[in-house]
């Protein structure tokens, strides 16, 4: 007795994979070029980050012992708010000029294009914050090992902020007072990253092991990379269908 012919599953060809990768590169490079044409959108989060960290000692206490203890929390909260400040522009310009609708209609998977936009947002916002962190860490009297761990936690944590933030930016697209609603939606999701980021730096300042906390932050990053693009793509389709 002969076996029935097997049902062939759809397989992504190499040409389709190359096409999707090329589309991601095109979206990524376009977002970078667009951002550099509007430097104020790049500078505002960075200036906000520097101002918050600089003004905090003036408003609370300039004592070295206090700043050394609270420095990691100051820097992480400032970084979180700086990323949040820039999220409203993640899809706004593309939505206003109709580019976003064209992206949704592309044959490539939308979640890959969303991932490219989220990575571009991190390069433009999160990465500069990581580069500024050592200077500001010294300003709040963090020690050398703590500064290194601070930069490492920001390097792992800020992409998570951009990926999670893209979900909120997609959900609030086209709404009035979107900035306020975006903050209400996203800040609760940021809290675990904030807790572990701050706690890791504080543990390093006390010479305690930080491997477990860094592993958890890495797990947050993997989880965000896996799930956030799909959630953002679904949110974009909903927002565009309701606009």
TrEMBL record:
<dbReference type="InterPro" id="IPR026031">
    <property type="entry name" value="Cyt_c_CcmB_bac"/>
</dbReference>
<keyword id="KW-0472">Membrane</keyword>
<comment type="similarity">
    <text>Belongs to the CcmB/CycW/HelB family.</text>
</comment>
<feature type="transmembrane region" description="Helical">
    <location>
        <begin position="111"/>
        <end position="135"/>
    </location>
</feature>
<keyword id="KW-0201">Cytochrome c-type biogenesis</keyword>
<keyword id="KW-0997">Cell inner membrane</keyword>
<feature type="transmembrane region" description="Helical">
    <location>
        <begin position="73"/>
        <end position="91"/>
    </location>
</feature>
<protein>
    <recommendedName>
        <fullName>Heme exporter protein B</fullName>
    </recommendedName>
</protein>
<feature type="transmembrane region" description="Helical">
    <location>
        <begin position="147"/>
        <end position="173"/>
    </location>
</feature>
<dbReference type="InterPro" id="IPR003544">
    <property type="entry name" value="Cyt_c_biogenesis_CcmB"/>
</dbReference>
<dbReference type="GO" id="GO:0015232">
    <property type="term" value="F:heme transmembrane transporter activity"/>
</dbReference>
<keyword id="KW-1133">Transmembrane helix</keyword>
<feature type="transmembrane region" description="Helical">
    <location>
        <begin position="180"/>
        <end position="202"/>
    </location>
</feature>
<keyword id="KW-1003">Cell membrane</keyword>
<dbReference type="GO" id="GO:1903607">
    <property type="term" value="P:cytochrome c biosynthetic process"/>
</dbReference>
<dbReference type="GO" id="GO:0005886">
    <property type="term" value="C:plasma membrane"/>
</dbReference>
<dbReference type="Pfam" id="PF03379">
    <property type="entry name" value="CcmB"/>
</dbReference>
<feature type="transmembrane region" description="Helical">
    <location>
        <begin position="214"/>
        <end position="236"/>
    </location>
</feature>
<keyword id="KW-0813">Transport</keyword>
<keyword id="KW-0812">Transmembrane</keyword>
<dbReference type="GO" id="GO:0017004">
    <property type="term" value="P:cytochrome complex assembly"/>
</dbReference>
<feature type="transmembrane region" description="Helical">
    <location>
        <begin position="42"/>
        <end position="61"/>
    </location>
</feature>
<comment type="function">
    <text>Required for the export of heme to the periplasm for the biogenesis of c-type cytochromes.</text>
</comment>
């Amino acid at each position: 007795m002969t076996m029935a012919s097997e049902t062939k599953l759809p397989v992504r060809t190499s040409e389709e994979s190359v096409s999707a990768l090329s589309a991601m590169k095109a979206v990524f490079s376009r977002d970078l070029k667009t951002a550099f044409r509007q430097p104020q959108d790049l500078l505002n989060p960075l200036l906000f980050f520097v101002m918050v960290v600089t003004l905090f000692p003036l408003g609370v206490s300039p004592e070295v012992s206090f700043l050394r203890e609270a420095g990691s929390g100051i820097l992480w909260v400032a970084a979180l708010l700086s990323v949040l400040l820039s999220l409203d522009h993640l899809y706004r310009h593309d939505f206003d000029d109709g580019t976003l609708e064209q992206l949704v209609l592309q044959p490539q998977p939308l979640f890959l294009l969303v991932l490219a936009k989220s990575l571009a947002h991190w390069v433009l916002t999160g990465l500069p914050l990581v580069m500024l962190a050592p200077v500001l860490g010294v300003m709040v009297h963090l020690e050398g090992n703590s500064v290194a761990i601070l930069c490492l936690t920001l390097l792992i944590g800020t992409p998570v902020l951009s990926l999670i933030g893209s979900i909120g930016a997609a959900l609030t697209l086209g709404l009035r007072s979107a900035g306020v609603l975006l903050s209400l939606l996203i800040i609760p999701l940021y809290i675990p990253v904030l807790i572990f980021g701050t706690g890791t730096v504080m543990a390093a300042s006390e010479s305690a092991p930080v491997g477990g906390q860094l592993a958890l932050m890495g797990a947050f990053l993997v989880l965000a990379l896996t799930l956030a693009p799909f959630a953002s793509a679904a949110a974009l389709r909903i927002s565009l269908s309701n606009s």
